[in-house]
């Protein structure tokens, strides 16, 4: 207990004004007897209190870490348990590895009987991989578990602790031992796997995002590549084409495509502020623009024997070389028409902004699917497969789908929902920063930001308001140089700036909304697009700034 | 005066409770001296009163006409003027035909000096075509003038009346003498040119809209065709290809494309209810779906010598055979990439739902531009031109563009704004009808409607709410038969139905919103998309129904 409490109090003293009460509440939880007592109502109330206290503490911590830019993950350490707990050995646990004998697992020093939870696991039956043993390595792999909320769910199933000898015996190999260097300025949303975004105040300072500042969205550890022996596999029906990176460069015509890539979770922070969602807490910077050089996927597939009139193939699947603990790799797929259309501009890239693709962004090969969600721009590409169905990967079938605001985890039908592919119109204000104090120049301030839409739809207008949306000023759009690459489509974002009239001496709500070339617009509020996974937060972007009185 | 008043009172007695006061107010206007007196303030006040009275009368009339389905256009007749007016001859008027001597025109029996108005004419310099003569024929041609508001503007410039002899001498040829037969069930928004839509309650009864019930959006009179001598002209650089309809049918591969066509003004009625806009008052039925048979525009252009790598050409222009009073025709254009892409599915059609295209829909040839605004699906096609610029037609350059809600007619920059081409996502409820009383089945009612998006983006979800948008039910989608035509894209609408829980004994606000395959969604409210021309009203569709108590 003391460990957690110390950590919490160190990070933000204001949320921990009453450590004694907090200790009392928490330690009462360490008695299994009390936890499982008939006083269910009391336990429930206590859990709520605990959740509130823990949430408060976590908010404080996150704030602190954001300021310090050094994430503290000690809150993921479970509380040390009281001595009265039943003690189990690894052998005891191993005997409970199926539904008949019950599903037991260990995490850190504790033992859990999760039989009653298996059915509700959002990741499905994958949970059974951990049955009868430690789940620590899986949690290292699947960062989504590393939240206080998930830890709390797990705690409900605690039945005792693991013997000290077995605690030591469990060798927790860290698959993340070989990650590349990253700039400390990145705002880290998850350390393992690494997920981070650049600061909003620099994001729109250049049309092309520097590689080092490009947001990183890794689902698994960054793989190592033995380039000498690496060949990209292309499977079309019974035929297989194997190509080294050099062969790819020599055999096909090189093209450069400038495209904005955006994570489906960009701006999730705002959606989770509206109502809790499951997923990494991205700000507005899980987006960036780069010039990718490579060869057309279409050229490679035609070379591999792909017949455009062959209706067997409806999807092109991609597999990365980043692997999970079961050695299955990250994967995704796109519809055939996008992959094979000359207009689609899908390439297999080997350069990002003129240099070899950095390890965090897919070295040596990455699929670039302009106008589509980041998740299909598969990194560390090692296999392309023409198929009659979508990728069977978890991230294609059971993730990156959006449900209605009234859909819950219980009612979500992943089979029926459509994978996110083409992206909707979005925009955001980069400066001034939310909550900042600004000086106006005769009642006028400059506002800057970005706007983007998927599917090659250009941004045709950005409206900016300084009165929360009552009146609007049209922003100036900054676009890519004409003819900067080999595409005639608008795959890249528009940057924008506008001078808007503000009211000094008070808070002003600055709002932006973009319109794309199909005259699609952004929704006004988050409520009607809220979804349990927090995807596609493209409501108007709103910030509040204090405008100082003119002297 | 009596004529107008009689007409107003006949149509809706409730709006004319005080004919005497109304007569007094109106007749005071007939004295030119009074009208131009120094008592400017009084005149202004009187004009407002008049506008209010006239607006009320018109609302009543429109309501009445809607019910009767027989539009009464007598309000367009100007009031008969008092005898004291100065009298001018046609020769007098003809001497004022340029800015130096002033711009005079006549309308019906009156003479106007519109020199001060020419600059503010929304249609630009086209107004000068009427200088020095009668504008009646132009107003017959451009229905947009035929509103009480425009008539009021004109009245401000009245300087006298036209001699009786010259009134008779002006021969007002009716270019609309040879219009085709139309079903009386259509709801007419403008008689000349003819603009009408089917009733909402039948619109979604079939996936394919019957030709006779397909909305008609004519900008000019329906032209006659001498099919024997007709040749479609295709101009590519210096080359010209001329093709008869038979040659088109024989020379190129026929294809059938099923597409939804929608007018940019669909649902304008709702936008004008929010705040007044300029344009025809369409309900939610300026949309329909048909199977069009023809040949690919791409095939014809390639045959005419179009070189895909020739960057001179950026737009493909279309000219119809429907002509205005100056013999210039309706026109529009689309970007080259849409016209030439195999994926674009642009065809020159000669059949609509299996029969020769009806006269109202473009006989004998019509461009079909799937996923684009109706206005570019040019009817009565007689010319295709490859060009470096957009069509110079009024409807391409100075119409069918959308501005921000804060843009006025004074600040609208038509050169900067982008032409509407690809359409945004939209949906509407077809049953139950707005304001109707419905019986629920154990607290449940069935709701039906349509949903569509441009650009070939499929509808992936329609959410329906019976509590104004607090909770949502996912609708069942009804789509076209797979393989029903020669396209692999989703150019046609989805029909939908849903059973929603309602609260009997009170009014329920039923709402729908659709999401397309790029996860674009509809805006919640009209305010933020309001635009002076009332285009693209794609906010959530809302109706209010009285649910009767269960017995």
TrEMBL record, chains A, B:
Keyword vocabulary terms for this entry: Heme, Iron, Metal-binding, Molybdenum, Oxidoreductase
Pfam (any one): Oxidored_molyb
First-tier enzyme category under EC: oxidoreductase
Cytochrome b5 heme-binding domain mapped to chain residues: 85-163
InterPro entries linked to this entry: Cyt_B5-like_heme/steroid-bd, Cyt_B5-like_heme/steroid_sf, Cyt_B5_heme-BS, Ig_E-set, MoCF_OxRdtse_dimer, Mopterin_OxRdtase_euk, OxRdtase_Mopterin-bd_dom, OxRdtase_Mopterin-bd_sf
SMART domains: Cyt-b5
This protein's pathway: Energy metabolism; sulfur metabolism; Sulfur metabolism
Cofactor(s) needed: Mo-molybdopterin
Domain of life of the organism encoding this protein: Eukaryota
Enzyme Commission numbers on file: 1.8.3.1
SUPFAM superfamilies cross-referenced by the UniProt entry: Cytochrome b5-like heme/steroid binding domain (SSF55856), E set domains (SSF81296), Oxidoreductase molybdopterin-binding domain (SSF56524)
Function: Catalyzes the oxidation of sulfite to sulfate, the terminal reaction in the oxidative degradation of sulfur-containing amino acids.
Name of the protein described by the UniProt record: sulfite oxidase
Source organism (scientific name): Clavelina lepadiformis (Light-bulb sea squirt)
